[in-house]
Write a structure and sequence with these properties.
This protein is an alpha+beta fold. Helix content is 30%, strand content 26%. Helix 5 packs parallel to helix 6 (231-244), helix 8 (302-310) runs parallel beside helix 9 (340-358) and helix 14 packs parallel to helix 15 (512-542).
Length: 657
């Protein structure tokens, strides 16, 4: 029918069972017992899977990366945060599993336990931190003390607080595990990390990696939430299926998903900044606290991402003290542009503060402190690139210095002069976004009938990866086909499979499509080299272009290898690069209610040479997500008990709305 099939759309195998998480509602407590209220749902419970069911040789792990550390699948014997899994109800249907999990009666004890650490301030007071390896730690730039001594003005104490954000993917966490012979298991899961999921499931079960097959056809929305957080559902289903020797699947309800998700990292930044009377910045020091939750997840990467975004301005000198705080909260994870949006927000708050002190137009201060190529190289080192690739100043000037912008700014000023209860503002904000290329595999196989099967390490998460890979395959093999456009219909991109193509890495960081396409292009180059002599020989005999089907049939008869694998690795001198962009927004606020209306936004983003402009336009959705984080979304928690246990989709700021 053309419908996209997601994990929960896969028909249930014979004798399939269903799971649901039983999670703690206390941030730090002993789990003494778990029972159920008597009901129809509890009568349909097959069993409850707990830490006691982990096989000999297995580990209590639900997610993690060996280089950073792991997070437990079960809170056993102590629950370390509200929302931590303490058991998995297995029932005959998903509905009964949900109902039984909600009817669980958990007995807690806080005897001999310290009070939970819930906030950045608590963590700093108790020296509760997650270590950041030196290889991931950002480095200071210049001499802060000297920069402050050169300043005409100083702000010695400013503060910015930033909240968390939930993913709001359409598809919640889901998995289907099917046991196989010889202690093997296949897990269909919605994940951005097939390889890491394979490793974690194997570590949990105490079996070799080659016994675990992870398949991910597509993800119904990721934004980072189907990374480390996606492995817990896979592990839960795998453990239950491994023990019961029956297929087990689960699909989290939205509330459970929100409670367990973690989300974006809350931050608290205190800063001191020096600047001259003309607005030139001379030095900045930031004390940054990051609430990472209970486990490392990918949090040790967040300081570097945050500082990389903060460096979009030439601060003169930049110093910082970053504390990655370990708290009794669900571990925070990467959310679209992790650290980058926080760093950019902090930078803009400081710029606004400086402009306010000077009584200057904010855009004047911004423009004055945009990097030259020299300062860009100082702040970003190898990722800065050459002068022709540095487009931020041109982008900013195109927006902020245009006659239209000046006209709109004057109109805003006139409106504010005539309006008492509603005010407008207009501003232009630049960004830098540093990305890292990663080694990526690709495999292209041409079948006997001329159809083409392609595999890549990346996962389709709605970003159009498979569309671009198909296009690159047709482009890469186009030299062999007189009508290359028709090759596109012959290409099929196969689902991600951890045993079929290894070292797939992870999907994220805004470079998966280009890396996967380059790996596919290299594989196509190998095939072209093999097939070109046959093509030339056939053309010499016939004196006419050779149809694709004829070429492949002849190559097959000649025993030519029609499959090629490539493992693309980036040039060491070009592992990182920077993307540039800017946006102008005109906003109206109601000073009585706090209601905010964005009247217009204009965005300019230098994406280089787009692989597919129609697909890439969809990335404008990032603007909507950022708006939600800044204006509308706020996680709620009960500090006394359910730290993070109650999450809502939106905390509306307008009391009259």
């Amino acid at each position: 029918s053309g419908e996209a099939v997601y994990v929960d759309d896969i028909p249930a195998p014979k004798d399939c069972l269903y799971g649901a998480f039983i999670y703690s509602t206390h941030p730090h407590a002993h789990i003494k017992s778990v029972n159920f209220r008597s009901s129809l749902a509890s009568e349909r419970v097959i069993t409850v899977i707990s830490a006691k069911d982990i096989p000999a040789g297995g580990k209590n792990v639900g997610s993690g990366w060996a280089m950073l550390g792991h997070e437990a699948l079960f809170g056993d014997p102590v629950s370390e945060f509200a929302g931590q899994n303490i058991g998995i109800v297995i029932a005959e249907t998903q509905k009964y599993a949900y109902m039984a999990a909600k009817q669980a009666i958990i007995e807690y004890s806080t005897e001999n336990l310290e009070p939970p650490i819930l906030t950045i301030e608590d963590a700093i007071q108790h020296d509760s931190y997650i270590p950041v390896l030196p290889v991931f730690a950002p480095q200071p730039i210049g001499d802060f003390d000297q920069g402050m001594s050169e300043a005409d003005h100083k702000i010695l104490s400013g503060e910015v607080k930033l909240e968390s954000q939930y993913y709001f993917y359409m598809e919640t966490q889901t998995a289907l595990a099917i046991p196989d012979e010889d202690n093997c298991i296949t897990v269909y899961v919605s994940t951005q990390l097939p390889e890491i999921t394979q490793n974690v499931v194997a570590d949990l079960l105490g079996i070799p990696y080659h016994n675990v097959r992870i398949i991910s056809r597509r993800v119904g929305g990721g934004f980072g939430g189907k990374g480390m957080k996606g492995t817990h559902a896979a592990c839960a289903c795998a453990l239950a299926a491994f023990k019961l020797r029956r297929p087990v699947r689960m699909y989290l309800d939205r509330k459970t998903d929100m409670i367990m998700a973690g989300g974006r990292h809350p931050m608290k930044a205190k800063y001191s900044v020096g600047f001259k009377s003309d607005g030139t910045l001379t030095a900045l020091h930031v004390d940054l606290g990051i609430n990472a939750g209970i486990a490392p997840d990918l949090s040790p990467l967040i300081p570097a991402y945050t500082i990389a975004s903060l460096k979009k301005y030439n601060w003169g000198a930049l110093a910082f003290d970053i504390k990655l705080c370990k708290t009794n909260m669900s571990s925070k994870s990467v959310v679209r542009a992790p650290g980058d949006v926080q760093g950019s927000f902090i930078a803009e708050a400081i710029i606004e503060h400086v402009a306010s002190v000077l009584g200057s137009d904010t855009n004047v201060v911004r423009r004055k402190n945009l990097h030259s190529i020299e300062s860009l190289t100082k702040f970003y080192s190898d990722s800065a690139g050459d002068a022709p690739t540095y487009s931020l100043v041109d982008i900013f000037d195109k927006l902020a210095s245009s006659p239209e912008y000046q006209s709109r700014a004057e109109a805003v000023e006139r409106f504010n002069g005539g309006s008492r209860w509603k005010k407008r503002g207009i501003s232009c904000v630049p960004i830098t976004y540093e990305v890292t290329l990663r080694p990526t595999p690709g495999k292209v196989s041409i079948l006997n009938d001329g159809s083409i099967a392609v595999e890549v390490g990346g996962v389709e998460i709605g970003q159009g990866l498979y569309t671009k890979v198909k296009q690159m395959t047709a482009f890469g093999l186009g030299e062999l086909c007189p009508d290359a456009d028709k090759l596109l219909d012959k290409v099929r991109v196969i689902q991600a499979d951890s045993l079929s193509i290894i070292q797939g890495g992870f999907t994220g960081g805004s470079t998966t499509s280009e890396s996967s396409c380059e790996a596919v292009r290299q594989a196509c180059t190998v095939l072209v080299k093999r097939l070109k002599p046959i093509k030339e020989g056939l053309e010499a005999k016939s004196g006419a272009p050779v149809p694709w089907s004829t070429l492949i049939a002849q190559a097959n008869m000649a025993s030519v290898n029609l499959s090629a694998h490539a493992f693309w690795t980036p040039d060491p001198a070009f592992v990182k690069y920077i993307n540039y962009g800017a946006a102008v927004s005109e906003v109206e606020i109601d000073v009585l209610t706090g209601g905010t209306t964005i009247l217009r936004s204009d965005l300019v983003y230098d994406c280089g040479q787009s692989l597919n402009p129609a697909v890439d336009l969809g990335q404008g959705g990032g603007r909507v997500r950022a708006r939600g984080w800044v204006l509308h979304e706020r996680g709620l928690r009960d500090e006394r008990r359910r730290a993070g246990g109650e999450r809502r989709d939106m905390d509306v700021q307008d009391p009259y709305g």
